[in-house]
Specification:
This protein has 70 residues and is of the alpha+beta class. The protein has one domain. It is 59% helix and 20% strand. It is built from 2 helices and 2 strands; from the N terminus they run βαβα. The chain has a two-stranded parallel sheet with strand order 1-2. Helix 1 links the parallel strand 1 and strand 2. The protein is flat, with a radius of gyration of 18 Å.
Length: 70
Amino acid sequence: MKNALIINAHQLWPSFAEGKLNQSFVSLAEKRLTALGYEVKTTTIELLMKRLKSISGQIWYYWYKRRFTG
């Protein structure tokens, strides 16, 4: 099975840009790819950045620990 990751790169600006257009594109792409036999996962840029920040903090910790404490 083929895989697809869709990242909704909209950043929320309350009462100015709520991301409805981007979300409709994401939904359309998800339906289309699912119909073509893809396994589709979606995420948002905010969630992705939080995860990357968490991972980078862990990498730094292990690198520091290994380098300076033993």
